[in-house]
């Protein structure tokens, strides 16, 4: 039996086939790499394209210098995101999306790309939430990719004011994607 590659996660049922490294985009927008780390994402053939489109639309919509920067989006499973959530946030439970903004050096080394950070999205939680809320999976995935991206460019929702600003940005970006307001009929939660 061969050893799994470092960083490779088995599929959501415990199998260990090769993971897929999705394609990247490059333009005035950030260079985005989507890594499909858990094979349960294979059930959603359009996941990579959905994430890339959401990130590109968000980058076009926000007032942030993202051109030439890089970010990675890891499509993972509940077990791995639970571990990340426990390690980085002290919450030992799965969540839908985590963002890890990159620390910016005072001086960028010549030729080195500027890193925006990383986003992790958990398949089972996203699927469960989409089903529970009666939303198309790709709409919910787009929302979470946008949410994660906004964290990378400085948005947050720690206060009511921040939450309102972030949700307004999400609504505007999702509207550009033809996705209905994900907060319609909900009480604001920061």
Keywords:
about 190 residues, alpha/beta, Collagenase (Catalytic Domain), 5 helices, about 20% strand, globular, disordered N terminus, zinc
* Cα Rg: 16 Å
CATH superfamily: Metalloproteases ("zincins"), catalytic domain
| Averaged pLDDT | 85
List the total number of helices.
5
CATH topology: Collagenase (Catalytic Domain)
Instruction: Write the H/E string, N to C.
Output: EEHEHEEHHH
Strand order of the largest sheet: 1-2-3-5-4
CATH class annotation: Alpha Beta
Relative strand content: 15-25%
Sheet of most strands: 5 strands, mixed
Question: What is the count of β-strands?
Answer: 5
| Name of the CATH architecture | 3-Layer(aba) Sandwich
Poorly predicted regions are 1-11, 13-27
End-to-end span in angstroms? 47 Å
Task: Explain this structure.
Keywords: Cytoplasm, Endonuclease, Hydrolase, Metal-binding, Nuclease, Ribosome biogenesis, rRNA processing, Zinc. Its main location: cytoplasm. InterPro entries: MetalPrtase_cat_dom_sf_prd, YbeY, YbeY_CS. One of its GO terms (molecular function) is zinc ion binding. It is a single chain. By secondary structure, this protein is α/β, with parallel strands linked by helices. It has one domain: 3-Layer(aba) Sandwich (Collagenase (Catalytic Domain)). About 35% of the residues lie in helices and about 20% in strands. The chain has helices at about 45-60, 80-90, 125-135, 135-150, 160-175; strands at about 20-25, 30-35, 70-75, 95-100, 115-120. It has a five-stranded mixed sheet, sandwiched between helices. α4 crosses α5 (about 160-175). The chain is globular. The protein starts with 19 loop residues before the first strand and ends in a 14-residue tail after the last helix.
């Amino acid at each position: 039996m061969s050893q799994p590659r470092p960083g490779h996660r088995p599929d959501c049922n415990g199998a260990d086939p090769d993971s897929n490294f999705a394609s990247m985009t490059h333009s005035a927008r950030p260079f985005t790499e989507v890594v499909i780390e858990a094979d349960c994402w294979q059930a959603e053939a359009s996941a990579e394209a959905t994430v890339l489109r959401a990130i590109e639309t968000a980058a076009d919509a926000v007032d942030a210098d993202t051109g030439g920067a890089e970010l990675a989006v890891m499509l993972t499973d509940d077990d791995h995101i639970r571990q990340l959530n426990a390690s980085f946030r002290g919450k030992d439970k799965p969540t839908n999306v985590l963002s890890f903004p990159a620390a910016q050096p005072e001086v960028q080394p010549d030729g080195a790309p500027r890193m925006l950070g990383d986003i992790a999205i958990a398949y089972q939680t996203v699927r469960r939430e989409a089903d529970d809320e009666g939303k198309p999976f790709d709409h919910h995935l787009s929302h979470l990719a946008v949410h994660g991206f906004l964290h990378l460019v400085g948005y947050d929702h720690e206060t009511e004011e921040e939450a309102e600003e972030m949700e307004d940005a999400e609504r505007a970006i999702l509207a550009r994607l033809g996705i209905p307001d994900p907060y319609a009929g909900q009480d604001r939660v920061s």
